[in-house]
Amino acid sequence: MDNINYNDWMEKTLKSFSKKKTILLHSCCGPCSTAVLDVLKEYFSITILYYNPNIEPLEEYEKRKKEQQRYIQESKLDIHWMDCDYDNESFKKIAKNLEKEPEGGVRCKNCYFLRLHKCATLAKENHFDYFGTTLTVSPYKNAKVINEIGLEIEKRINQDSNASLQFLIADFKKKDGYKKSIILSKKYNLYRQEYCGCLYGKESSREF
Fold first, then answer.
1. What is the pTM assigned to this prediction?
2. 58-75 vs 30-40: helix axis angle to the nearest 10?
3. What domains are there in the chain, each with its CATH number?
């Protein structure tokens, strides 16, 4: 999938809809969800999945989850919610021996796969049309890598179950998506974390 404009691909997909579809949307945090929900609300009946076992410590995880829930409530968007138990052990397993990997390396790719596979599995079980993620709104996340992982999971899920679940190809940082997320985060006074989630990557901290 080299040289693909993922934002154009997404827009073409959305414009092809004759009616709203259902999507289970993995969200990494409230701030990243803001601009993404603003784009997708016209095209989907959206359910947010908050599955982020990479976030450490537990207090940080709970703080981010509450901010996500607060944004959904205060924005008055028609958004449904699907929660998951804190599952840090699953992240530890896929990160084993990769603790010293740089941000964006193999550990991060494993983490993307873990979260997107959980999202796809739940989407299939609950008969959603699509699954997707807010991750690409961040300028620190590689949209090509994330989209390739999503499409690989789509292929596996459908082969294993004869389902017709689709992954929403996207690059939400395009067309000032990240800038809009900052503006909306400030409007709702959302907590913006200084590291992606795991403690291994915290040393290269920056505001996400």
1. 0.94
2. 30
3. 6-13+21-204 (3.40.50.620)
